[in-house]
Amino acid sequence: MHDSRAISVLIVEDNKDLATNIADYLESKGYLVDTAMDGVTGLHLAVTCAYEVIVLDLMLPGIDGLTLCRRLRQDAQSFVPVLILSARDTLNDKAAGFGEGADDYLVKPFELRELDLRLRALTRRSRPGETQRLLAVADLAFDLDTFVVRRAGKPLTLPALPLKILELLMKRAPGVVSRRDIERAVWGDSPPDSDALRVHMHTLRSAIDPPGQRPLLHTLRGVGYQIKDALAV
Predict the structure, then answer these.
(1) Is residue 217 within 8 Å of residue 179, measured between CB atoms?
(2) Closest CA to 189 of 115, 118, 108, 109
(3) pTM of the complete model beyond 0.70
(4) Can you give the pLDDT at residue 207?
């Protein structure tokens, strides 16, 4: 059953026919839709309006999709979920998208129903609702009210889905969370291909365990992941 509350979405796509097709379909499903035909307009709308999810093409005039996503994360410090639409279908292409802060990746051509399911999963999983507002393990802190993560007092930049994974791991720390539990918490019943979680975990590890810091994110081969301070008694 679909969420009855309208979801606000920004579509950044320079193919007018495709953008119109997506917008018409999503509006028929109850979404509130804005569109941008170039990267400059898309970035402006993304940082000045409160969208719940962004659909982003890669090949855009003005600013390409990867640059837009990077600026959104690094410069604007925005954690709005981003789903990339692209005809580029290699693992390296997907890794580049996730590496710049995207949360999901859908290869063209695609079914509009699948886009709808993925967008609903992204918005559903990115909403905090728990009562515990500050999570801490060793010198890693996650403020659930502001979505600010700090390691040794230094703010860290993370996309929406690695943030969601970190929240789950920190809430269960020092317990081990299985891959299946993480996939269910993040994507619900619409998981992407098997490479997506691996890429998100790499993004998360790179952010919270920089060189010179003792590692807090641990992988248990064949079991799952945990956030744990190895020096804690």
Answers:
(1) no
(2) 118
(3) no
(4) 94
- What is the C-alpha to C-alpha distance for residues 205 and 185, in angstroms, rounded to an integer? 18
User: How many angstroms separate the CA atoms of 119 and 174, rounded?
Assistant: 31
Rg of the chain over CA atoms, in angstroms? 18
pLDDT digits (tens, 9 = 90+) for 16-47: 999 999 999 999 999 999 999 999 999 999 98
Give yes or no for a contact between 68 and 60, defined as CB atoms under 8 angstroms apart: yes
pLDDT the model gives residue 16: 95
- What would the CATH number be for the domain defined by 134-227? 1.10.10.10
Q: pLDDT at residue 83 above 60? A: yes
Give residue limits of the domains in the chain.
8-125, 134-227
> Which tokens hold the place of 125?
């999983």
Q: What is the mean pLDDT of residues 126-144?
A: 69
Choosing among 3.40.50.2300, 3.40.718.10, 3.40.50.150, 3.40.190.10, the CATH entry for 8-125 is 3.40.50.2300
- Cα separations (Å) of 176 from 46, 129, 228? 36, 22, 9
The mean pLDDT value of the chain amounts to 87
